[in-house]
Amino acid sequence: MDYKSAKNRREKVQSRTIILKQDGFEKPLENYNLDSEKDSQLKVFLKRESGAEIENIEAPQHIKIMQQQELIDYEPSSDIGHFRFYPKGTLMKNLIEDLAEDIAINKLGAIKIETPLLYRAETPDIAEQAASFHERDYRVKLEDRELLLRFAGDFGLFSMMKDAKLTYKNLPLRVYEISNSFRFEQSGELSGLKRLRAFTMPDIHCFCKNFESGLEEYAKLHKFYDHLLHETELPFALAFRTVEDFWSQNKKFILDRLKESKKDGLVEILKDMKHYWNLKNEFQYIDNNEDNVQLSTVQLDISDSKRYGLGYVDSDNQKKPMVIVHSSMGSVERILSAIFEERAREMKRGQKPTFPYWLSPTQLRLIPVNPTFIRYCENILSEFKGIRVDIDDRDESVGKKVRSAEKEWIPAYAVIGEIESASNLYNLKLRGKEFSNCLGEKLTTTEINKLLLNAQGEKPYRDSYLNKKVSKKIRFGSLY
């Protein structure tokens, strides 16, 4: 099927949308009293799904935060929807990527691959899949050929899997890839990190023997991503998209997912297959402008195996198609946007905004009261293990140094002078949910290590990308 035909077929598919409660109650969205919905995230999402326009058209609040904190900014010399990441922003991005890889490889047992960014637009199966992305593919003309920049992690993976010698003994098989991806979003729809043209997508594809095995995988991944978002304290609304045939036979499967998440949700029911999946769920985050953005997703794919000629040899020595479960924790940039939006919510509530400890570019700052104590701070620096620590060695007042630490949302800092250097005990100033139960006691470096490493938990760690002395750090803003 060519690109135009696939697009026309997709646009003709009709759907209906219902609200589904955990107890099995369902009601058409158009007949649902939205004002009665108690889940604030779901309420806003339902309004958006019913066609309500955003009343607040201000720029997303995460943009101001990422700029003021010297993390990320627009790149004027590139295409719109492309961003530059400063050292602190790059660190945070890399830590999210590390988390995605840890989930895929260490927790879910996936194998890792890497595939190209460019694909031939005339390839029939690629053209058909491109149609499902609403003509938002990024196209590049090179000599007499038109190429697509990847907008999903499937093309190279499926091409690779054609050459894989798979048998029933290999399945289920999880494959992980993280890659730069591109979607040609309309310029008027671009919105900071939540809608952009270039993004980083960590994808996990699981190849399953049959429909039942695919459902088992789907349930496992849905539960995993639900737990992950709860753990990162990112609130969400839950939505499912499915086809009529699946819905009529598997309503209980969707209900079970709602019960696991302890949430009611939206279900869109398509009359016929519109995409490559017959079931998809979306974890939808609602930002401070009451706009929704999809984070994690799990998709049950029953068509791509045949379309791409993928299969495995079963125990009867016959080659058979597979069911493919696509999943992702969400693009790295969108996750960062949600994390930044939550900091804006903290400020609205009158709280001190604080990044999650494990993502904080500087986790501990030592503040000598004057240049005399810089050497002392340098000497104890090596006693902090697995902690991003720096020294504010500038020739400034203690008050200004403390204000700088507060403006940078540093979760822990200690002012060091005569008393501290003589006693080797430090009064640690803390901020953030991880330290809500900590008492204001003076601590040794060993006790500080224990406290901060406990806050780090099992999350990924990297050392700072900037100099350990504040005076030597390259600047991209005016926080100091």
Outline the secondary-structure elements:
Layout: H1 3-12, E1 15-20, E2 26-28, H2 40-49, H3 61-68, E3 72-74, E4 83-85, H4 87-107, E5 111-112, E6 118-120, H5 124-131, E7 138-142, E8 145-149, H6 155-162, E9 173-182, E10 198-208, H7 211-231, E11 237-243, H8 244-261, E12 265-270, E13 277-286, E14 292-301, H9 304-307, E15 312-313, E16 319-320, E17 323-328, H10 332-348, E18 364-368, H11 374-381, E19 389-391, H12 398-407, E20 412-416, H13 418-423, E21 426-430, E22 442-443, H14 445-456
Helix pairs in contact: 1-5, 3-10, 4-10, 7-8
Write structural notes for this entry.
The chain is an alpha+beta fold. The chain folds into two domains: 3-13 and 53-241 and 291-347, 2-Layer Sandwich (BirA Bifunctional Protein, domain 2); 357-472, Rossmann fold, CATH 3.40.50. 34% of the residues lie in helices and 24% in strands. The protein is built from 14 helices and 22 strands. Strand 15 (312-313) and strand 16 (319-320) form a beta hairpin. The radius of gyration is 25 Å and the shape is globular. The mean pLDDT is 92.
